[in-house]
Amino acid sequence: xxxxxxxxxxxxxxxxxxxxxxxxxxxxxxxxxxxxxxxxxxxxxxxxxxxxxxxxxxxxxxxxxxxxxxxxxxxxxxxxxxxxxxxxxxxxxxxxxxxxxxxxxxxxxxxxxxxxxxxxxxxxxxxxxxxxxxxxxxxxxxxxxxxxxxxxxxxxxxxxxxxxxxxxxxxxxxxxxxxxxxxxxxxxxxxxxxxxxxxxxxxxxxxxxxxxxxxxxxxxxxxxxxxxxxxxxxxxxxxxxxxxxx
Length: 246
Ligand code: ADP
Ligand code: MG
Ligand code: MG
Known about the structure:
Bound molecules: adenosine-5'-diphosphate, magnesium ion
Shape: globular
Helix content: 25-40%
Number of strands: 12
CATH topology: Rossmann fold
Structural class: alpha/beta
Strand order of the largest sheet: 6-9-10-3-11-12
Number of helices: 9
GO molecular function: ATP binding; ATP hydrolysis activity
Family: Belongs to the ABC transporter superfamily. Ycf16 family.
Largest sheet: 6 strands, mixed
Oligomer: single chain
Strand content: 25-35%
Low-confidence stretches: none
Mean pLDDT: 93
Order of helices and strands: EEEHEEHEEHHEHEHEHEEHH
InterPro entries: AAA+_ATPase, ABC_transporter-like_ATP-bd, FeS-cluster_ATPase_SufC, P-loop_NTPase
Domain ABC transporter: 2-246
Radius of gyration: 18 Å
Organism: Moranella endobia (strain PCIT)
């Protein structure tokens, strides 16, 4: 599904990712942890496609194709989704219209016919019901005046609606109360079908109690310095990162 080889990424000539390697196979859930500033968001954003980050060398293959060559919209069309730490606000654009546009853009890429206003309303209402999200989120402007929890709900709604093959969550669990966290993890778990893969960037074990990761990685100074299974999360909770970052 995803193969990252010796990835180097710079921002304004500062090396942020330093020969990073990661393999994510079909259906796998990978958790990425690590101290602040270790490059987790840079990795996530580079995969989603951002102009701020210069890939200076290395390779990223996604479903056999060179991901780095694709524009962000093409990546979304190919099935990469990223839930941002700080979701975008779009005044004056209704959330339902925004979601319909996003879904139809991806359907076009998949050579599926677009959903009209009525079909989309049925489609998105089933997702709203599935996630137990208040329906008034659809009629408001995209993320404008949304609480932190509502923004996360909206992000997860978008993810569930787009049905991506690779879902990247960057600290989506930060600052969530237990009900919002359950909504996020329920969204992830309903998408899990053995064929979708997940990269979950987090600081906390909490989210990983609900979404069992197959692999846990720790980043430090722009690369993965330790990989293991869930027991690595326990060890970090108990001992912190000091033993990995010396
Ligand atoms: P993490 O998500 O692990 O906390 P980040 O990927 O956000 O780490 O940041 C890694 C390093 O890259 C930090 O030192 C940060 O200051 C730097 N960095 C990230 N994005 C930018 C940017 N747009 N401009 C300048 N420096 C950046
Ligand atoms: Mg951070
Ligand atoms: Mg970050």
